[in-house]
Amino acid sequence: MITADQSVVIPSDWRDYLALTKPRVMTLVVFTGLCGLLAAPGHIHPVIGFAVILCIAVGAGGAAALNQWYEAEIDAQMKRTAQRPIPAGRMDRRNARDFGIALSAGSVIVMGLAAGWLVAALLVISIVYYAVVYTIWLKPRTPQNIVVGGGAGAFPPLIGWIAVTQEVTLMPIVLFAIIFMWTPPHFWALALFVKTDYAKVGIPMMPVVAGEASTRRQILIYAILLAPFALAPWYLGGFGLIYGVSAALLSLAFIGFSLPVGLRRSEEGDAMRPERKLFGFSILYLFALFAALVADRLAANAGWIA
Amino acid sequence: MTPEEQERLKASQKSRNKALGLVLVALVVLFFALTIVRFPDAEDRAQYEAELAEQGR
After folding, report:
1. What CATH number does the domain containing A60 carry?
2. Is residue A147 a contact partner of residue A23, using CB atoms and an 8 Å limit?
3. Is A120 touching B (CB cutoff 8 A)?
4. Most exposed residue of A20, A190, A250, B7, measured as fewest CB within 10 angstroms of its CB?
């Protein structure tokens, strides 16, 4: 007897494709990319600037789709991620992969045509870094995965800046370093108060592998090491007092929020208040720091300060 | 395939096509705008001529 599969595959909704691009992560990507673009010395046509930000966002979306394509089995076993389109059965895995490749390739081609192939090459590096180096290679292998992953989030301001200047200089690399150093304390603060099931699926997150005490110590170390990087745009001479003072105050506050987290130990049934505060402040910190960078540049361009 | 399934399939195909159509229109607009912006103006042409003359010598 011949039996035919009568089940029908309903094509995924556009909302599922949108969810695949991790739109909430994208807001931070768009913001830091835009700040890099606006803080860079020089001029870029608004249409090209728009295309650059669009390509950074779409490239990040493509990398996020590839990430979810690769991690579908892991996501299915974790409460936080089980409702994503692929593990929830709303999307075919291969469609997600092809969607990710299409977004990545499309964003790189448009970036090359709009802002030149140096910037497009940097976009390729950032996508491959996130989708391959981080997701496939290092995330399942080392508790330093968040440190590595921070590099992926650090690309947007660098790309935005170089789209304007068309050359790789020290300042965009400093912006890269700021986000790179910021990510570990930001994420580990979250990891301390959100009980995730990373251990169950074999992803070596720092609090699970090295223990809470070590994670707390490392949060404090990164918070202190972040300060010289945050101040670098000012003492390297690219930016003025608006940025310098903002960065100094924000860095002091960041260390201030990290101190109680780094020096205490949680007890049974702990409300984890210092950790929650640090996590909340870390987001504000990044937004404020990059906004100060742009404000400083705009003020200098307007001739308000020397 | 039941009639209800057919209905759902059609509806979801339609919305997907609509979304794709919008993306294509947006790309057309973007490429048009980029072409206009990147079209060489008198200054770009003068620079190009100068480079040519430089190579010719």
Report:
1. 1.10.357.140
2. no
3. no
4. B7
